[in-house]
């Protein structure tokens, strides 16, 4: 079997959200696992709404996720190909001119519904004579162009949904070319899939009906249709459909919120599948978990709370080498010992700044029992301090005061960090060091 060629085809009219991200990842990771090619195809034929800034943002997002494309193409640079394909369909009689206005089409649709008929296009334009067409054009009308569907059942085997079929007799002949000569999505998409030799089309289940139409266009052009896989869509935690207007679920907003790309990718790929949702730190490992037969056909909820939990779990296992430069940029220069001490208490890497302040100061100590803290300060050992210092010190304080358990540990934590919770003090105390510890136990901000 030849290696797969797949594509992710966003319109650069806004920032991509987590739903788009799922499509991109399933394509990219499948290609990576099988040694294939991942193509980024910008569907930017809408020249007015498509913006280069959005295209640049999408490319940045894919690199951030760890799945940069192998090839990038832009539909706005491929109009000659679409013109040629349209002409071939016209010559073969599969693309025909129609002159109805939107108002006329809406009137016909309502009339058909009132008569209990399906509201599909009645193909009246096929009955127009050349003279009638000339008359309409003389009146200023310009044709839009419809693809003539064969009224038959179109079957295919879907990698996710199994055996599928659509009866095209229930569909209107789709418009492929507008009155102004611009193309709707379907014709350029099929033309590109043929020219780029796309082997697998992996996309959301909202495209299932489109598939039957596209298969007929592939066949009309003498091409073998690709293999299709239609996965369930992602929704918000409340069940709302995703769209570009939900800016808080764009990849840019998730990144700016401090979330890790591996956490985002893990949830986007694994939710709605038979795999347990868990953080997968390595892109190649995540790719090996994709099994299209185990992906749900129904919608799956993308829960931001679950994403935050995955993010924290990922950070708790993150090696120092992976974050060294980021820690330096945050001014947290405590090295690997500091990172290993605090990472278990982080939800996001940026949270490390809070614990660097706890170590490095200034911290305002919280002291409720001054006599106890004074006794603890008296028992504080001289340096150098290491991982054994905390245990030795607390044993000495316990022997001197008779206090134990939470009554022993909580006042020391409050005095040393000003907080009721945090990393293990056995790891923090050597980082705080003797001078700052003594000052804090004396009630001084240090």
Give me the secondary-structure topology:
Blueprint: E1 5-8, H1 18-34, E2 37-42, H2 52-65, E3 71-74, H3 79-91, E4 95-98, H4 102-114, H5 130-138, E5 144-147, E6 153-158, E7 162-167, E8 175-177, H6 186-195, E9 200-204, H7 208-220, E10 227-231, E11 234-236, H8 251-256, H9 261-270, H10 283-288, E12 300-302, H11 304-316, H12 320-329, H13 335-342, H14 352-360, H15 370-379, H16 389-401, H17 406-417, H18 425-441
Parallel strand pairs: 1-2, 2-3, 9-10, 11-12
Antiparallel strand pairs: 4-5, 5-8, 6-7
How is this structure best summarized?
Pfam families: Anticodon_2, tRNA-synt_1c. The chain is an alpha/beta fold and 446 residues long.
Write up this protein.
- With 446 residues, the chain is α/β, with parallel strands linked by helices.
- The chain has 4 domains: 163 residues, HUPs (Rossmann fold, 3-Layer(aba) Sandwich); 88 residues, Alpha-Beta Complex (Glutamyl-tRNA Synthetase, domain 3); 41 residues, no CATH class; 72 residues, Arc Repressor Mutant, subunit A (Orthogonal Bundle), CATH 1.10.10.
- It is 46% helix and 12% strand.
- The protein contains 18 helices and 12 strands.
- The strands form 5 sheets. Strands 1-2-3 form a 3-stranded parallel β-sheet.
- Helix 9 crosses helix 11 and helix 17 packs across helix 18.
- It is elongated, with a radius of gyration of 31 Å.
